[in-house]
Amino acid sequence: MKTLIPFLLLAIVFSCAETPKNETTHPETEATEVSLQDYHSFENKDDQFTGGIKLIPIETPKGTFNVWTKRIGNNPKMKVLLLHGGPGMTHEIYESFDGYFPQEGIEYIYYDQLGSHYSDQPKDLSLWDLDRFVEEVEQVRVALDLDKDNFYLFGQSWGGILGMQYALKYQDNLKGLIISNMVSSIPEYQKYSDEVLAPQLPKDVLDEIMTYEEKEDYSNPRYLELIVNNYYVKHVIRMPVDEWPNSINRGFNHLNPDVYVTMQGPSEFGIKGDATLKNWDVQDRLKEIKVPTLTIGAQYDTMDPKHMEWMASEVQNGRYLHCPNGSHLSQYDDQEHFFPGLIDFIKDVDAGEMN
User: Fold this and answer.
1) Considering the entire predicted model, what is its pTM?
2) Please, where are the H alpha helices in 228-321?
3) Strand, helix or coil at 197?
4) pLDDT tens digits for range 45-76
5) Rounded to whole angstroms, how far apart are CA atoms 166 and 142?
6) Distance CA 77, CA 254 (A)
7) Which residues fall within 8 angstroms of residue 70, CB to CB, at 6 or more apart?
8) Which of 16, 67, 90, 226 has the fewest CB atoms below 10 angstroms from its CB?
9) Residue 67 dihedral angles phi and psi, to the nearest 5°
10) Tally of structural domains, the chain
11) CA 46 to CA 293: how far, in whole Å?
12) Is residue 82 part of a domain?
């Protein structure tokens, strides 16, 4: 089974291609803007000693464990908790945010979910359950003093599943929700993978990949080579493998295969076998989400961008951001559209322009 390649890799229509970078201003938010000195200051903060790092105890049916978080910046009205993909990946895939959020005064929190590299990694597979992860996020929120006046939840890929599920139970605690590169139905994801993405591969490549899939020989080095060089560079991160950012490579190396395979399964062409997320589908419940919501899709994503656009029209207060040059990791391969659109959404919600 392939243990180092994750799923991460698993209405108002708004095209980010139409928004020039740094052009939009938000005079209404001047009262909540913070100086650079205040933004970067740790004075009178209980995490000054650790440089923003907090280990948060999480109560589970199997005992108490610690999860790792790290706060970047201070802003009383804009705090973004980042939910990584995988499942079992790490916060490292979001290190590109360091290049864009600080100068906008947006506070953000790195977070390794339970089982991920910087947090505790218990071996009980029963912990890798969607509903338990939802309760974990809620405990993290409480520990970090996040609330409806400042709490933005960003989830990408598996993190998007977790973000949607959290919002369906706890949206009254949210100020804004961002669902990045994730559709609202695993069966729809599987259909898109089978009927749209797989046939785009050269026939000889697809045939060879399928021989390994049929034998469930997912750990075969040749299978991994074919997937990375023919699928990932087109639909996960559109860069030559030798140019992948160090943060992405570290994230892959730190992936927890127990979490990943239990929930996502071993295949790179959808979710198969007895993976616990195989039948997850909340398409019919999106209309319950009333909090301002941004969905982010990308032209070359493993997820259908049309479905992402549709999701923005299903929630009660949605906006869609399209990344025309991006794939599953648009925060790296389409930064010129991803970050301006994301920042505009956060500031528009703060200014009351999404109400």
Assistant:
1) 0.91
2) 233-235, 246-253, 257-263, 305-314
3) helix
4) 999 999 999 999 999 999 999 999 999 999 99
5) 14
6) 33
7) 51, 52, 53, 54, 91, 109, 110, 111
8) 226
9) -115, 150
10) 1
11) 31
12) yes
User: In this structure, are residues 131 and 110 in contact, taking their beta carbons and an 8 Å threshold?
Assistant: no
Q: Does residue 238 belong to any structural domain of this protein?
A: no
Cα–Cα distance list, 230 to 154, 234, 240 (Å)? 29, 7, 10
Q: Please report, for residues 67, 163, 286, the alpha-carbon distance to residue 131 in angstroms, rounded to integers and kept in the order given.
A: 17, 11, 17
Angle between helices 158-170 and 130-143 in degrees, nearest 10: 70
Active-site residues, by number, are 157, 301, 328
For residue 22 the two structure tokens come to 């740094």
| Structural domain contains residue 226 | no
Confirm if 352 and 310 have CB atoms less than 8 A apart.
Answer: no
> Is residue 33 in some structural domain?
yes
Tokens in use for 305?
């961008």
Structure tokens at 133: 């992860």
Report residue 163 as tokens. 């973000």
Q: Which amino acid is at 268?
A: E
Domain span holding position 47? 12-182+285-350
CATH of the domain at 53: 3.40.50.1820
Question: Which ranges of the chain would DSSP assign to H, the alpha helix?
Answer: 36-40, 130-143, 158-170, 186-192, 203-215, 221-227, 233-235, 246-253, 257-263, 305-314, 330-333, 335-350
CA-wise closest residue to 241 among 262, 259, 225, 223: 225
Q: What is the DSSP string of 83-100?
A: E--TTT--GGGGGGGGGT
